[in-house]
Amino acid sequence: MAIPPKTRERIIQASLELFNAQGERSVTTNHIAAHLGISPGNLYYHFRNKQAIIAELFGQYEGHVDGFLRLPPERPLTIDDKTFYLEALLAAMWHYRFLHRDLEHLLDSDAELAGRYRLFARRCLQGAQDIYQGFVEAGILLMNPAQIEALTLNAWIIMTSWVRFLCTTSGQPGELSEAMLRRGIYQVLVLEGGYIAPPAREAVEALYWKLHVPLEQVI
């Protein structure tokens, strides 16, 4: 028989669901406690405030991204790796979409979280540059170091602002769909269009078709 999740784990999961559905600003600790059918005091036994819950969720997100945004050991990159990275980014964005929607507010509200996020951003940018360099060394992309740096930064800007863009064009956070986030991953991929090595173009263009979502489904 499956062991029921502990109260702390239930609080984390319920908070993530509510933040994603309603936006973090619309959800209080009392809402979370009522959703779980527990007393506010029981919630405060595990988390002193909502910021502590958010910090825990960011830690999960941070660990998840750190776990995949790296080069594979002892082998060159392939087109399949490109699919893996893009799909992994999509899954992370979707699962923790409230972080992307409310990022500036969350960081303004918690100086410690803001410091953690800056370090996380630096790691992500360095990891992404290493991966783009890996695709160059594998003969999939043709880019110099300055182009790699610029592409990495442009990709980061799209990835971190895409959910907020969707919220300004689609309405409420609960109306977001995974397909709408998939279009953001597509936007990152097409940034590489001018750098694809001829032997890899057919495979990369097949990936374009796999990730493409019509604009009318987004805005």
Automatic annotation (TrEMBL):
It holds the Pfam family TetR_N. GO terms for molecular function: DNA-binding transcription factor activity; transcription cis-regulatory region binding. Residues 28-47 bind DNA. SUPFAM superfamilies: Homeodomain-like. The keyword DNA-binding applies. Residues 5-65 form the HTH tetR-type domain. Keywords: DNA-binding. PANTHER family: HTH-TYPE TRANSCRIPTIONAL REGULATOR RUTR, HTH-TYPE TRANSCRIPTIONAL REGULATOR UIDR. This is Transcriptional regulator, TetR family. It comes from Pseudomonas borbori.
